[in-house]
Write a sequence for this structure.
């Protein structure tokens, strides 16, 4: 998992997609080509091709009309070094598995973007010596797969490292210059006021280097969000941040702004349903935003009855749905009409919250089994801990027991 990790009509959306979009041609190893415009790269949902029970992209394309996929994640090797790998373990240079996935997608008229970074693991910006070395590592990925789109997912813990962010932004600028027409998105954490301090520092780094991607996208989840209204509020505030940072007017800021959501139950127990996605989609299209995507297609399917609604999973959404319901919102954003629309199931009601345990204290010592409340959730200690904020890390000492 990423953390584990007024609507325009179809004709208007097509017109919007055509305006200012450049047709890009991607070639697979066999020489076959497929042409997509920027709107499709902007609508590409995340897919882990090697982990979290990868779904068949061809089946998703047939069922929804989706054409573009955001493959995740390229990292530095777990053992160290400045060479690209999938997930820190599978070298890009010798890869055949992801190449096969890409060839399947392109054979059906689609294409991919590749996302670097994500939550956890060692990023190339941390491992490489400077922007040029970082860019050289990413260029291997672009060349290997014939890419025309790339996503820089800059979040914890990398975006707290100013030297690493300098390398990543510098690399993005070099790649943009050396690969004409390359669609570049930069994705970072979302907060109620748009993005947090580290996200704002990243924007300032981009400004200082004179780098402007196709969009800066925020992820308004895992930060105390509650449905679509809180997400659109964050997008409005982020627009103001972009205006003040780069000196853009409102329309220009929206044209460089993106949304990256999480379908179903988030890592912190928030719920985002199909209705929430529709509301945010309406906001994105009516404000002429550049990107609408989500984490992830691996999660875009119904959980088993035992799991549904009870936990956050990397392989299902924990809300009532038909397979690929959420992918259809990306299709709509791209300006297409999903085939064979089906009624949306009634979302699973949010359970009645339990009573809150005693409030967590930074100075207290907790041992295995101790229970506290923090952020309107109850938490149980998995081992001895002191001054470690509940929910600050997926792999931390606290187990989320749900809202209270």
């Amino acid at each position: 998992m990423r953390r584990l990790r007024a609507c325009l009509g179809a004709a208007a959306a097509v017109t919007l997609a055509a305006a200012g979009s450049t047709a890009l041609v991607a070639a697979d190893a066999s020489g076959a080509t497929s042409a997509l415009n920027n709107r499709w790269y902007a609508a590409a949902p995340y897919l882990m091709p090697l982990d979290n029970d990868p779904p068949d992209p061809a089946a998703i394309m047939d069922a929804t009309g989706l054409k573009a996929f955001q493959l995740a994640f390229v990292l530095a090797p777990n053992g160290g070094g400045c060479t690209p790998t999938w997930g820190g373990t599978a070298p890009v240079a010798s890869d055949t598995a992801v190449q096969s996935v890409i060839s399947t997608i392109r054979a059906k008229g689609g294409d991919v973007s590749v996302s670097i970074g994500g939550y956890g693991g060692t990023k190339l910006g941390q491992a490489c010596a400077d922007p040029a070395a970082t860019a050289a590592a990413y260029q291997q990925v672009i060349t290997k797969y014939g890419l025309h789109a790339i996503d820089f997912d800059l979040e914890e813990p990398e975006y707290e490292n100013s030297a690493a962010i300098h390398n990543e932004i510098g690399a993005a600028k070099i790649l943009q210059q050396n690969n004409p027409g390359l669609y570049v998105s930069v994705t970072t954490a979302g907060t109620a006021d748009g993005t947090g301090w580290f996200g704002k520092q990243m924007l300032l780094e981009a400004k200082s280097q004179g780098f402007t991607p196709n969009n800066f996208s925020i992820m308004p989840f895992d930060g105390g969000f509650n449905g679509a209204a809180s997400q659109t509020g964050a997008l409005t505030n982020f627009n103001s941040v972009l205006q003040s940072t780069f000196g853009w007017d409102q329309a220009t800021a929206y044209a460089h702004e993106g949304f990256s959501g999480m379908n179903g139950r988030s890592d912190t127990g928030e719920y985002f349903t199909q209705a929430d996605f529709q509301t945010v989609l309406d906001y994105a299209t009516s404000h002429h935003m550049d990107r609408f995507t989500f984490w992830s297609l691996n999660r875009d399917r119904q959980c088993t009855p035992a799991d549904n609604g009870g936990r956050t999973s990397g392989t299902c959404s924990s809300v009532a749905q038909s397979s690929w319901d959420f992918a259809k919102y990306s299709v709509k954003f791209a300006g297409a009409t999903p085939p064979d629309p089906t009624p949306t199931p009634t979302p699973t009601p949010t359970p009645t919250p339990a009573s809150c345990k005693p409030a967590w204290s930074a100075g207290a010592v907790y041992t295995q089994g101790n229970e506290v409340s923090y952020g309107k959730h109850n938490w149980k200690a998995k081992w001895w801990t002191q001054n470690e904020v509940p929910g600050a890390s997926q792999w931390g000492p606290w187990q989320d027991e749900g809202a209270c």
Notes: Confidence is low (pLDDT under 50) at residues 5-32. The chain has twelve helices and 19 strands. The two ends are 25 Å apart (CA to CA). The CA atoms of residues 370 and 381 lie 5 Å apart.
